[in-house]
Amino acid sequence: MRLLGLIVLAAVLIYGVTCLAVWRVAREDSRPRSDAIVVLGASQFDGRPSAVFSARLAHARSLYQARVAPRIVTVGGKLPADRFTEAAAGARWLAARGVPQSAIISVPTGGNTLDSLRAVNVVLRRNHWRSVVLVTDPWHELRARRMASDLGLRVATSPDRTGPAVHTRATQIRYVLREAAGYLYYRVFHSDRAKGPGAV
């Protein structure tokens, strides 16, 4: 029983430390000059990005206008009944708001963060681009940055701080708890438990 108690205590401590790491990294915003800005996908509705996705895209557009990178990569797949991929919906949103088509690269693959980053990595390597600024929600920074780094990318993260994921303290706590679990799952299994478009 004592051994079991120690195991439980260790697990609780590891989870608690990871929650603190998620919270700490969520406060960071790094935007060095890079080869590309990568916007991780979120839900879209018949070509219209969700509130979460729109906020990420708006932040990526502001980084592009600040000349952080000469191009924006949108990424994300679709459900069988969808007409648009997340990547296509994101690209349409950016183009409609003044980002040149030549500066937008759409990668219509990925049902979770890891699959999306793997798909983006193929495109980046093909073009000899290695440095990226990831745009996602603050709580997702730690996991996304770790995955991108494990793929060999030189990665920085610049989160959106205006979307629904940061509106209330209760929402923030829920996302921190979820992301800590997701990060630990990835570190143990080198896999992403979230599946399907809209998952991050």
Attribute tags:
200 residues, alpha/beta, Rossmann fold, five-stranded parallel beta sheet, two-stranded antiparallel sheet, 48% helix, globular
Structure commentary:
By secondary structure, the chain is an alpha/beta fold. It is built from 6 helices and 7 strands; from the N terminus they run αβββαβαβαβαβα. The protein has helices at 2-26, 51-65, 86-96, 113-126, 141-150, 169-189, and strands at 36-40, 44-45, 48-49, 72-75, 104-107, 131-135, 154-157. The mean pLDDT is 95.
**Could you state the CATH homologous superfamily?**
HUPs
What is the CATH class designation? Alpha Beta
- For the biggest β-sheet, the strand order reads 5-4-1-6-7
User: How many strands, which pairing sense, and closed or not: the largest β-sheet?
Assistant: 5 strands, parallel
Mean pLDDT across the residues is 95
From the N-terminal CA to the C-terminal CA, the straight-line distance is 38 Å
The global form is globular
Which architecture per CATH?
A: 3-Layer(aba) Sandwich
